[in-house]
Amino acid sequence: MALDLGFLTSPKNPPLVGLDISTSGVKLVELTEAGKGDLRLERCAHEPLPRGAVVDGNIENIEQVAEAVRRAWKKSGTRARHVALGLPPASVITKKIILPGGLSEDELEVQVESEANQYIPFALDEVSLDFDVIGPAQGSPEDVEVMLAATRKEKVEDRIAVAEAAGLKPLVMDIESYAARAALGRIVAQMPKAGADQIVALFQIGAQVTQVSMLLNGETIYEREQPFGGSQLTQDLARAYGMSFEEAEMKKREGDLPEDYAAEHLQPFLENAAIEVNRAIQFFYTSTPYTSIGHIFLAGGCANMPGLVEMIAERTKVSSTVISPFKGMKRSGDVREKQLNLDAPAYLVACGLAMRGFD
User: Fold this and answer.
1) Side-by-side strand order, sheet with 82-87
2) Do both 201 and 308 map to the same domain?
3) CATH code (residue 138)
4) What's the rounded Cα separation, in Å, for the pair 36 and 53?
5) Residue 69: which residues within 8 A CB-CB, separation 6 or more?
6) In the listed set 136, 154, 172, which residue is the last one of a domain according to the structure?
7) Could you tell me if residue 107 is inside a domain?
8) What integer pLDDT is reported at residue 11 of this predicted model?
9) Residue 125 domain-assigned?
10) Which tens digit of pLDDT belongs to each residue from 194-234?
11) How many domains does the chain have?
């Protein structure tokens, strides 16, 4: 599901780079086809963002974000300038609707706009609107099920402005949770029996919030946000060691911290993270008919923290793995393997966005 900004206009698709803009930084991924349905990771790069440049998914400083995108693009070494961008799930309204089958594209568009008025609390001229026909409606084969997606135009325009200011051409605007699901789908397909009939939990631990998604046979059955993220540890370090937030974040990433860091700060953060994950799972059980989870995947910038995945597995009693969206992909010689192993979980959304080039 994505807002198409003019993609697929030529017989051969241009190379498309996935560009993920989050609170903590920008991530860029370029993929190519490697034959027989395989993909190859050509390049990836990330650049941190100054605090306050992106807040709650809103771009507050277009110049700062565009400059970070320029640096990431240059660092990656890619020549591709066409990009797929993502919008935070909280800024997009999605709704499944039932419409008569057999309508032309133009007739569908009129019907979708008419239906959208019921679900969107804004004037339609303030909204970017798109839809996707899912297939025949269950129990009513003469009708079709349609996914409607809408967001405020300014949300789309800000991301377009960032890309264009960085010298890039935005072609696709996806929803970050859909991009993450696409990248996760590749990994689940590599599980025993392709993960069939077991619930897979995805926890994307970001700077400010943790995105919780539960999937069953490729379909999302539950989603929510938890107000918990890695910046809580960074703020704790800044206070404890008398640093700026930016300095604390840098030293946290590099592991350049005093001896008491692990015991006094990291361990309590890991315990709190495990409690938050377990709490989210219990909430899922109490608010849905489901009572078990087959596997937990951790993604986001915090996922690779030493000891986190083991602590979550112990507390939840569920098999847990730190995800690498590039598992099973070939790698180009431009990819630094050691660094990629550390950063891979943070590239989940950017990888899913890059995969839009092969739709």
Assistant:
1) 2-4, 169-175, 82-87, 16-21, 25-33, 39-48, 330-331
2) yes
3) 3.30.1490.300
4) 41
5) 19, 21, 26, 28, 47, 162, 163, 165, 166, 168
6) 154
7) yes
8) 36
9) yes
10) 999 999 999 999 999 999 999 999 999 999 999 999 999 99
11) 2
